[in-house]
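User: Design a sequence. Structure:
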C-alpha cells in the first residue's frame, strides 16, 4: 500500500465519520500506532479521532483495554479472541463509536508453525453492533510490508463498519 493510498483511505474514513458524527479509536499491537498515525495525519482529524491505544505487551492489553488474562493464556496475544477483546476494550475505554484492533506477528522473527510470521488478527467494534473479526495471513512479506498491509486492512474494516 502506498502512502497516497493510506492517506486516501484515512481521509475517506474521516469524511464518512464526520458526516455520520462518529468518533474512532484504535487498539494496536504489531502496527505500533501506524493506523492512528494514518488517521491523525489528516488535517481536522481531531474532531473524529478520540485516541489510539498502543498495547504491544500483554500487560498493556490487560491494563489499557481490559483483555482478560485468561484469554491471553488460552488463545495467546495473536488470536481472534484477543483482537475482539481489544476492539471492545477500546470502545469501553474511550468516547469512540467504533474501534479497530490489530494483533499479529510482523516478523521477521517470532513466528511459530501455528502462528507464522504474517498472521494478523483484526477486529472492528461499533457500539450497538456485533464485533467483526478478520484473520489475514500475509505470508513471507517483510515486516514493513506486513505492517503496511495491516494498516490498509484496518482502515478498510473501519470504512466497512461505518457503511453498515
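Assistant: Done.
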Amino acid at each position: 500500500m502506498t502512502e497516497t493510498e493510506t492517506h486516501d483511505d484515512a481521509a475517506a474514513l474521516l469524511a464518512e465519520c464526520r458526516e455520520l458524527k462518529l468518533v474512532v479509536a484504535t487498539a494496536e499491537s504489531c502496527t505500533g500506532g501506524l493506523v492512528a498515525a494514518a488517521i491523525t495525519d489528516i488535517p481536522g482529524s481531531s474532531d473524529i479521532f478520540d485516541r489510539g491505544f498502543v498495547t504491544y505487551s500483554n500487560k498493556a492489553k490487560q491494563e489499557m483495554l481490559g483483555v482478560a488474562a485468561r484469554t491471553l493464556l488460552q488463545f495467546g496475544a495473536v488470536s481472534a479472541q484477543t483482537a475482539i477483546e481489544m476492539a471492545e476494550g477500546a470502545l469501553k475505554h474511550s468516547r469512540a463509536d467504533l474501534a479497530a484492533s490489530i494483533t499479529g506477528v510482523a516478523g521477521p522473527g517470532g513466528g511459530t508453525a501455528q502462528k507464522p510470521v504474517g498472521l494478523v488478527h483484526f477486529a472492528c467494534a461499533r457500539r450497538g453492533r456485533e464485533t467483526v473479526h478478520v484473520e489475514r495471513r500475509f505470508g513471507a512479506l517483510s515486516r514493513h510490508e506486513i505492517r503496511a498491509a495491516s494498516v490498509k486492512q484496518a482502515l478498510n474494516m473501519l470504512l466497512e463498519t461505518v457503511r453498515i
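The first helix runs from residue 3 to 20. The mean pLDDT is 96.
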